[in-house]
Amino acid sequence: MLRKKLIAGNWKMNGKLEDGVNLARAVSAAVRKLTKPQCEFLICPPFTLLYSVKKVLRGNKVALGAQDAHTASKGAHTGDISSEMLKDIGCSYVILGHSERRTNHGESSRVVARKAAAAHANGLKTIICIGETEKERDEGRTIEVCTKQIRNSMPAGSQAFNTVIAYEPVWAIGTGKTPTPQDVEEVHAAIRKAVAKKLNKTIASRMRILYGGSVKPTNASEFLSLPDVDGALIGGASLKAEDFMAIAKSVY
Ligand code: PEP
After folding, report:
1. Which of 93, 122, 132, 195 is surrounded by the fewest CB atoms within 10 Å?
2. Pocket test for ligand 1, best of 93, 233, 244, 247 (most atoms within 8 A of CB)
């Protein structure tokens, strides 16, 4: 298989210690029961839960990721967490440039690229999020916006083994609204072209591009069966182990 599908959960700012540990235990137990997993699993809890969740996942096939990381490795950056620190406690992935960070923290694509370069230098794989707003979509600018975000958010030196793209239309996140599968396939194909232009064709053909935005057990197979969709980044539905696993089963 050229690109093994990735099923990734973004827990966002949810979960106290007990909730997080219980959710991680439930996911971990369900994954352990799969005899031949057809996809890779990743969960991205909030910073406060990473270390406890890591202990639950130890020896399991579920990878651990964070939801942001600073551009620097250490220093006077109150309230921030570095890629070096995340790697040290057992993370292998970090989500960068999620639309909630772009909107709520004013993160530009250039900042995302600097964060991604730091993450790669520290041995983390990045999930770089891109996606258009509803206004941009209505103006027919989806592909233009997404290709520009790809160009500016992916640092030079990105490779298929250390970079995953997540296409998340901003208007589909947490709203229950989704693009049509045809629209998703069209945007993913355009993203792959943009990656080929920025890096090269071989890397583009191997790089995973996830779809994210109101993915649920009931609609997951529509997206996961598309040729250019290599997995899903799941917000709300990743907070219930049964839903998360039901989405993963759409890959089979
Ligand atoms: C997300 O936050 O990355 C996301 C896709 O959220 P939801 O699945 O809740 O739309």
Report:
1. 122
2. 233
Rounded Cα distance between 65 and 51, Å, is 11
Q: What span, in angstroms and rounded, lies between the C-alpha atoms of 247 and 240?
A: 11
- Tokens for 64, please give them: 């651990």
Give every CB contact of residue 244 below 8 A, 6+ residues apart in sequence: 7, 9, 27, 234, 237, 238
pLDDT in tens, the chain (252 residues): 689 999 999 999 999 999 999 999 999 999 999 988 889 999 999 999 999 999 999 888 999 999 999 999 999 999 999 999 999 999 999 999 999 999 999 999 999 999 999 999 999 999 999 999 999 999 999 999 999 999 999 999 899 999 999 999 999 999 999 999 999 999 999 999 999 999 999 999 999 999 999 999 999 999 999 999 999 999 999 999 999 999 999 997
pTM score of the predicted model: 0.97
Domain assignments of the chain as residue spans, ordered by start: 5-249
Ligand 1 centroid to Cα of residue 87, in Å, is 24
Q: Is the CB of 233 under 6 A from ligand 1?
A: yes
Would the CB of 9 count as within 6 Å of ligand 1? Answer: no
Q: Which spans in the chain are helix H?
A: 17-33, 47-57, 83-88, 99-104, 109-121, 134-138, 142-153, 181-198, 201-206, 220-224, 241-249
* Known active-site residue 168: yes
